[in-house]
Amino acid sequence: MVELPNTAQSDASLLVKQSLAAKLREEIIEGHLAPGQRIVEGHWARKFGVAQTSVREAINLLINEGFATKASGRSARVTSYSEKDIAQIYELRGALEGLAARLTAQHQPDLEPLEGALTELRKATKGGDIRKLIEADLHFHLRLCELCGNRFLYAQIRTLIVPLFAFVAMRVVQSHQTAQAWESDLERHKRIIELIREGDPLAAEFAVRAAMQQFATRAYEIWQRKEP
Asked: Which of 3, 103, 117, 163 has its CA 20 to 30 A from that of 134?
């Protein structure tokens, strides 16, 4: 038997993990693994015909992406939030992202990353691709917080919203939401960029806080509602 070089073995192992993670991610997004449900490594190892260790490593990738959580000494579970959780997350997002918008307006960095994320949002909305829309929306908010120049704020917001957007992806796909339902949010994103570019820190902060407050009041209901 010809042994693969270490680098080739490493690449092959990574591909296996990524492939397994993609399969499990699809099971979660499509609702075959429900929010809060335990992800049993042995079950998925048998189903996919792989070693349990490979499944464990794939789950770790999903944890990094926000689709699963794992407490110390416990099995991984699919990310889950209650309506109260969502309200509290948006309350915190308003404070953190509002501050990020204010700092960005003060520092006036190159806004190309933010413009690029908005362009992707528009493309996904026009193309009716709800998954790409959610991904682009996540990128927009991450870029906003990254551009503010405060690495501690960015680290906190990333920890907060990566799992949230994973949960959103699960709920909107399972409730058959369309990208067009999110079309009104494009103007809010555009306005945030405009206020930052104009160098109006307080107005930029207020716009972000208002957007978060407005969406928080209807977010959970929208994600749970099934469209005909």
From this structure: 103
Rounded Cα–Cα distance for residues 179 and 128 (Å):
5
- Alpha-carbon span 63 to 117, nearest angstrom: 24
Q: What is the pTM of this model?
A: 0.85
Pick the CATH number of 83-224 from 3.40.1390.30, 1.10.3720.10, 1.10.10.10, 1.20.120.530: 1.20.120.530
Tokens of residue 213, six digits: 């407050």
Give the whole-angstrom CA distance, residue 26 versus residue 13.
Answer: 20
pLDDT in tens, 106-140: 999 999 999 999 999 999 999 999 899 999 999 99
Q: How would you class 228 by CB atoms within 10 Å of its CB: exposed for 0-12, middle for 13-18, buried for 19 or more?
A: exposed
In the block, tokens 């009716």 appear at: 128
Distance from CA of residue 55 to its chain's centroid? 22
Residues of the chain within CATH 1.10.10.10 domain(s) are 6-78
